[in-house]
Design goal:
By secondary structure, the chain is an alpha/beta fold. Strand 1, helix 1 and strand 2 form a beta-alpha-beta unit. The protein contains 21 helices and 14 strands. The strands form 4 sheets. Strands 2-1-3-4-5 form a 5-stranded parallel β-sheet, with helices on both faces. A 5-stranded parallel β-sheet has the order 7-8-11-6-12, with helices on both faces. Strands 9-10 form a two-stranded antiparallel ribbon.
Length: about 450
């Protein structure tokens, strides 16, 4: 195998030469950008390249991009110190197959990279099939294929991942996919919705508490960080966490230890942290609503799930997957119904699609026609009254909470009468009930901002 090594450390070059030449490989060494250009000008073709990200006269990312453009079939592995891990992640997004950290503590990792076959179409298909089994459907969309590829690439790495995207796009499904690819199946996956609980209750849920820490704390209780150690902890709606809670989360990410509420002994955690949000956390940080240092810790790897309206070519595959999962008997979509689904704007994304299909399947006789699809016209938003009275929000919230096992809604909210019998206070109360007190989400549901909702509540 013809291998290129680009690193300004002569000792590393010598190490690679002694290690690989003895195994019958041909090694070309370049210690800076000029030597790299000289070797490439001689029309050398490489099967594998190890590229250091920090070079004296150029940027390793630039060489990576140049080599991938000139020799697309060349497998590229970037080399990095921990301080440049963010750059290594960017390199993978640019086409690097993987990255390895220096100093090399285990040479078997390098040998494994050399022996590993080039990722081929069959391997990518297997990854997409694994994603589909987890509920993450790619269909024909290149954007979703890229999300799945990056998720699979970073899943084995002990890196914190931030998943963002609109409500209903499948952020938790993506988190579970990463968890399943990361290691043995017996590792726990736990999730907590940071916007669904009051601040003090959230702190207790995350970190646990000692007996007597507060009124009602009759016995010691483990929190999510402790229960998820060795597994994965999903911090859903991380943008809803208070600034005080954010400080505590930052400490856990930096030190990998925490204190129970009322505790005096630090507890270590090895939990893999995945955060999810439907907000732009960079804008929130600029507004002082989210800690910038926590954001940097969370988005070591950032995956953005595209909204359904931007991947309409995936709708046939997603719709069929939903029907197979939700309906006990086979249900087909007529061409007219499928056309209507692809023409819809989908503000509620996959969650909205699921609700519409389940309702349509229940009304049909095994074949969903256009008349069975209860979709609002493009550009018109359903009012809060319409959504509450029709039960849409109740069904969505119950489905969401059942899937995530965060909380369980009380069955008493199901008896919602006609619109005429609902006062404005009733609507606000139901919105807050359905969102478990999350004022930001309740305001969004009612079509107002949080300031307006506070005004209503004060009135």
């Amino acid at each position: 195998m013809k291998i290129l090594v680009v690193d300004d450390d002569y000792d590393i070059g010598t190490f690679f030469r002694y290690l690989l030449v003895e195994q019958g490989h041909h090694i070309d060494l370049a210690h800076d950008g000029k030597e790299y250009e000289r070797l490439c000008s001689q029309n050398h073709l490489y099967e594998l390249a190890f590229i250091d990200l920090k070079l004296p006269d150029t940027n390793g990312l630039k060489l990576l991009a140049d080599l991938k453009q000139a020799q697309p079939s060349c497998r590229c592995i970037v080399m990095t110190g921990y301080s440049t891990i963010d750059t290594a992640v960017e390199a993978v997004k640019l086409g690097a197959e993987d990255y390895i950290e220096k100093p090399f503590e285990d040479i078997s990792i390098i040998e494994e990279k050399i022996q590993q076959p080039k990722v081929n179409r069959e391997a990518l298909d297997n990854i997409e099939q694994a994603a589909a089994r987890s509920g993450l459907i790619t269909g024909e969309s290149e954007a979703m294929k890229e999300v799945v590829r990056l998720a699979a690439r970073f899943a084995p790495k002990p890196l914190t991942i931030l998943i963002d995207g609109e409500t209903g796009t499948g952020k938790e499904v993506a988190a579970r996919f990463i968890h399943e690819l990361a290691g043995p199946g017996e590792r726990s996956f736990l999730g907590v919705n940071c916007g669904a609980l009051p601040e003090q209750m959230l702190e207790s849920e995350l970190f646990g508490h000692e007996a007597g820490a507060f009124t009602g704390a009759s016995k010691t209780r483990k929190g999510y960080f402790e229960l998820a150690s060795e597994g994965t902890l999903l911090l859903d709606e991380i943008g809803e966490a208070s600034l005080s809670t954010q400080v505590k989360l930052l400490r856990v990410l930096e030190t990998r230890e925490f204190y129970r509420v009322g505790g005096e002994r630090p507890i270590k955690t090895k939990a893999r942290i995945i955060a999810a949000t439907n907000q732009d956390l960079h804008l929130a940080a600029e507004a002082g609503e989210f800690r910038e240092d926590l954001l940097y810790r969370l988005e070591v790897v950032r995956l953005t799930i595209p909204p359904l309206r931007e991947r309409k070519e995936d709708i046939p595959a997603v719709a069929q997957a939903i029907l197979r999962k939700e309906m006990p008997e086979s249900t087909a979509l007529s061409p007219e119904a499928l056309d209507a689904l692809q023409a819809h704007h989908w503000p509620g994304n996959i969650r909205e699609l699921t609700n519409i299909l389940v309702r349509a399947a229940a009304e049909s006789d095994g074949r969903i026609e256009r008349r069975h699809l209860n979709m609002r016209p493009p550009g018109r938003k359903t009012t809060a009254r319409e959504r509450i009275v029709s039960g849409d929000w109740l069904r969505e919230k119950k489905q969401e909470l059942e899937e995530t096992k965060y909380l369980s809604l009380e069955s008493t909210v199901e008896d919602i009468r006609s619109e005429e019998k609902q006062s404005i206070q009733d609507i606000i109360d139901h919105a807050l009930m359905l969102t478990r007190g999350n004022r930001r989400e309740a305001a969004e549901m009612l079509g107002v901002n949080t300031r307006k909702l506070r005004y209503w509540l004060n009135e």
